[in-house]
Amino acid sequence: MGNFSDRHWSDILGHVRNGHPELFRSWFNNLEPLEMQHGVLRIRPAAHTQHDYLSRECQAAFNEAAQQITGRLVTVNFAAPLEEAEPAAPLSFESETDQIVLNPNYTFENFVSGPCNRLAHAACTAVGENPGRVYNPLFIHGSVGLGKTHLLQATCHAIKSRHADARILFISCETFTNHFVEALERGVVHQFRYHYRHVDTLVIDDIQFLGARERTREEFFHTFNTLYQSQKQIILSADESPSNIPSLEERLVSRFNWGLVARIDTPCLEVRMAILRKKARLRCVELPENVAHFVAANVVGNIRELEGALTKMIAIGQQFGGQLDMEVAKQAIGDHVPEQIKPVTITDILDVVTSHFGVKASDLQSKRRSRSIAFPRQVCMYLARELTPLSLEEIGGYFGGRDHTTVLHAARTIHDAKQQDSELTCTLANMIRTLRPINS
Ligand code: ADP
Ligand code: MG
Question: Which residues line ligand 1 (CB under 6 A)?
Fold first, then answer.
């Protein structure tokens, strides 16, 4: 296309579309810009009927758009179509079905915020109210099942409810990659760019799957820049922080830091209970407090597992008249968590540590600070960090209500001591073997 860039072309189309929506047709996206020479921009439609329509109705609109975008006195000329070609198969990125349909339940109302996700939640809420203005780009990361997709979709719902005509594109990273590869293969990269760069909010879930292909990464980089420069909102999620994702290059990582990077951590007991209550209410089932506590205390992995336990309880409960009581909960959790991955509990750790050091559990859980107690207590905290998904706050809570910095310090102290002391290394390895006989 010589001196004429793809960017110009998609801008011209955008200009016609915005300025003359009554003239615009979806097949405009398939027009082929040929070249620009001596002030004439030649554009080729695919079919004679299209050529007739363009020459008859659209000459002025295209001239005006081309002049605006290039800043030069350009005239558009519609070239004759090559031949009446077979209708091409529709491009997947232009079909509605390829976009992720938002889950109506993934709203802010249905999201429980707590210490584990406070920043991410606040940032998403702010972006939902003011897209493109507050945190741009917004990058949410955390391991699987901790609510990233839920938060991203809640943000989209919020934007939609305030700006009904906002163009929001929510897709998985895989879809972005597939679309780009398809566009490359079919020689319609300009259409791909038009599709992805004419949105008000672009949300890409699980960006860690961007992959190693140079061209895809390059394309993502330019999509990012184009949107960012026009103050369009960009929201991304991943299972790792930007600097820990190998497929993101340095230049992208630094751009993410222009906005906000927020991490979601494993939820603590209170948040897990609140989520259970919310999910139970959504499903219109009554969940007694002691049952919620029991389930939240035992299913400590991600939230998806917690929801799985609730589903199971509802199914089992139906056989017993619909009540969700402790009996039902025990049955449900009993086989929800298979034996070999049954989480190690604080009680298991206390058993092992007290019998090794000959101290009492009640002392470890007290405020006493003598070394004979403090050291085994630090070992407990270290093991709890290594073997359970409990948060620092929860672990501290079990050991005399200590705060998270004490737990962090204890875990580090034992970790460092282990490097110097081979006997301690063996002791810890034996303890871990006792606690997790199958995995170790
Ligand atoms: P991710 O995308 O991080 O893997 P999802 O967003 O798919 O996780 O969340 C998994 C499930 O857990 C979803 O059903 C979601 O509604 C629920 N969930 C996660 N965090 C929360 C929360 N804080 N409040 C309510 N539901 C949550
Ligand atoms: Mg997800």
Answer: 106, 110-112, 117, 142, 144-150, 275, 278, 303-304, 307
